[in-house]
Write a structure and sequence with these properties.
By secondary structure, this protein is mainly alpha-helical. It has 3 domains: 308 residues, no CATH class; 164 residues; 155 residues, no CATH class. The chain contains 25 helices and no strands.
């Protein structure tokens, strides 16, 4: 930028520096670390623009746009987003070159190919999580940026693609350098802190449950589960920060899944004590004594001795009831999972494998392929409508409008509140246009040099970062920060003509209007999304009853909680009527039934190898596949009693397996009694004699 190559603005620099550092005693309304975040973002933008101007690449503003898109509070977030941004850009550039090469002379076929590619990328982005989703979406709208930008000059598509990739690389490197030099906060430390906080809360809930103080309400335990599941994103970010990230992240995932299991155990124990099940006071006292303050056992030998003590029955005493076996097994599971939590956090912190981390842990999430297809169709429809409007208008610059519609529509479509993104576009784009106009016509022509330019951009970047930090204002901040550099139209030889500025940016304003109507006229339905979650739970239960369902595993427990969290989210967007809350409670109860059946099947599969009980175990497995809802859980309870009687004469390891099976059967029988009517009503488990 030739007009900015000379020095200047020293007095203004001093004034602005004083303005920046005066709030060092941070105002109460600013989140911790926000000033440092703004300063890092500003430094990265100016470094990227300076390098882009120095290299004389076309459209140097893309480097600044890249920084504003990548700007995140944590180092791991930046590195992860940069990685997927680079991958998405390369994939999109390759597809854009291919489409131009094949359909360069046929606009209808070219735009149809762009629409199909956008739809495919949105489908993949909806199914992915974190910045993997962003990479898929970026691969979509990069085709629009490169391909539509070259629709009137197809021979330049390769050059445009090279310059775009170069600008993005400059932005990525600038962000990485600034954050390394300034020592931005790391994601793995945030992850470790979150795990320790979650572990403390889970242990407190476990102690309260065993000691009969009750369990927290649904809002509390689901919020805790949501906090734990949210750490999955921090795991994704932290992988880019550590050389030994594979081992450390295995420890983190092991701790997370074990905490979810501890929540389930605590709820189960609280439920059985609250229902005054058939548990002798002496057994309950022994359980509480062995549990103590919840400190995990040192090794397997201590755990085995504790289990032997809890299962011991004096001569003349009746055998353990299924309810007592359930209480003992769930309490022992609490201590086992507590050990895994401790060892998982230690592995993350020290980078050395602890004895009781679960190897190969996978945290599964609930996917919604129907929503993914609907999102893809909505993007294709919105892009097609915008293309028709632009073609019918006959204006030469409408490719700019179409390009921006494709970009923002793709980015926003996978969020639940697309209306907020529509409002963000309608507010953020005009706001960025006004600020860019004032800067371009009233400020920049009266100064020179990169120092002056940097200081003038500082308030804009700070305002954008502060908007990004605020959850409700994030869509406005994203549109404002990203569009500002696009609207300003920075180039190596900048033109300060107000008329050209207005002509150029009328099309951006048109894109904001189209986006607003596209994103607000057909918002996604929370009721339908919750219905699909309920259907997923029902189909999972049906597979359990036919013997084809998953047995208890980290993937099952994490997917189960992810479903419940999604159901809670969609329930929160519905009118809070009694029927709405009852439906949510039913989804929770059916999810618990699925977990109990999965635990029973896991122990029964192991028990099938015990010769002494192979026949009754086989009968029990058949019973799970042919349950009679008119009797509900009574047959399962009888089988649990039979297995406990057989376990009395078996070796300790086999006895532990049968106690686990009896516990799973008891939990399933209670939940079957509670949900028998719903299972019959919804056809999840047909009545005897009905066609399957």
């Amino acid at each position: 930028m030739k007009a900015m190559e000379q020095g200047g603005g020293t007095g203004m620099a001093t004034a602005l520096a004083r303005w920046i550092w005066l709030p060092a005693a941070r105002p109460a309304w600013l989140p911790p670390g926000s000033i440092a975040f703004c300063l890092r973002s500003w430094a990265a933008v100016m470094l990227a623009l300076g390098v882009a101007f120095w290299l004389q690449i076309d459209s140097p503003a893309s480097a600044g746009v890249t920084v504003m898109i990548l700007t995140q509070p944590l180092r791991g977030q930046i590195l992860s987003k940069a990685l997927y941004r680079m991958a998405g850009t390369l994939a999109g550039a390759a597809v854009a070159i291919g489409l131009i090469a094949v359909f360069g002379q046929d606009r209808v076929m070219f735009l149809g190919g762009v629409a199909l590619w956008l739809g495919l990328c949105v489908v993949l982005g909806t199914l992915a999580r974190d910045f993997r989703a962003y990479g898929a979406l970026l691969a979509g709208y990069t085709v629009a940026i490169i391909g539509i930008g070259c629709i009137d000059r197809p021979e330049q598509v390769f050059t445009v693609a090279i310059f775009r990739v170069s600008a993005i690389m400059i932005g990525i490197v600038s962000v990485a350098v600034v954050n390394d030099v300034t020592g931005s906060p790391t994601a793995w430390h945030r992850l470790a802190t979150g795990l320790r906080h979650g572990a403390g809360e889970v242990r407190r809930i476990a102690r309260d449950a065993v000691n009969g103080h009750g369990s927290p309400d649904d809002v509390t335990w689901l919020s805790l589960a949501g906090h734990i599941m949210a750490l999955t994103s921090q795991v994704s970010f932290a992988r880019t920060e550590l050389a030994d990230s594979a081992l450390r992240m295995t420890g983190a995932r092991s701790a997370m899944v074990s905490m979810l299991d501890m929540i389930s155990c605590s709820r189960a124990i609280s439920g059985i004590l609250r229902m005054n099940e058939d548990v002798r006071p002496a057994i309950l006292a022994r359980v509480r004594q062995r549990f103590g303050d919840g400190t995990p056992f040192v090794d397997e030998a201590e755990a085995s001795r504790a289990l032997d003590h809890l299962l011991h029955i004096d001569p003349g005493e009746p055998p353990l009831t299924p309810a007592e076996a359930y209480l003992i097994e769930r309490t022992m599971a609490l201590l086992t999972y507590g050990r895994r939590v401790t060892d998982g956090i230690r592995t993350l912190a020290e980078g050395r494998a602890a004895p009781r981390i679960a190897p190969g842990v996978r945290i599964a999430r609930q996917q919604d392929p129907v929503l993914a297809l609907l999102n893809g169709a909505r993007v294709m429809a919105g892009f097609t409508a915008a293309a028709i409007i632009c073609i019918l208008s006959g204006l030469p610059g409408t490719t700019t409008t179409l390009l921006q519609v494709a970009t923002i529509l793709t980015l926003s479509i996978t969020t639940f509140d697309t209306r907020a993104f529509g409002v963000g576009a309608l507010v953020g784009v005009p706001l960025s246009t006004v600020c860019a106009f004032v800067l371009d016509t009233r400020i920049l022509p009266y100064g020179s040099g990169m120092v002056f330019f940097s200081l003038m951009l500082a308030p804009i970047i700070f305002a954008s970062c502060l908007l990004l930090i605020h959850p409700r204002l994030m869509p406005v901040g994203l549109n404002f920060g990203v569009f500002f550099f696009i609207v300003l139209g920075l180039d190596n030889v900048h033109n300060y003509d107000p008329t050209q500025f207005v002509d150029r940016n009328l099309y951006y304003m048109l894109s904001a209007v189209i986006l607003f109507f596209t994103l607000t006229l057909a918002p996604p339905s929370a009721r339908r999304r919750r219905f699909r979650i309920a259907m997923a739970v029902a189909m999972t239960l049906r597979r359990q009853f036919t013997g084809r369902g998953d047995i208890a595993s980290p993937a099952l427990i994490s997917r189960q909680y992810d479903r419940l969290l999604q159901a809670r989210t969609w329930t929160g967007h519905l009118p809070q009527k009694p029927i709405t809350l009852r439906v949510f409670d039913r989804i929770v109860s059916l999810g618990d039934l699925n977990g109990a059946l999965a635990r029973a099947r896991r122990h029964l599969v192991r028990a099938a190898a015990i010769q002494a009980v192979a026949e009754p175990v086989a009968r029990t497995q058949d019973m799970l596949r042919t349950l009679n809802l008119s009797e509900a859980g009574a047959p399962l309870l009888g089988q649990a009693t039979h297995l406990l009687a057989a376990a009395a004469t078996l070796p300790p390891a086999d006895r532990e397996t049968l106690v686990g099976a009896a516990s799973g059967l008891f939990g399933a029988s209670r939940l079957l009694d509670r949900n028998a009517r719903a299972l019959r009503h919804y056809g999840i488990l047909p009545v005897p004699g009905a066609p399957r």
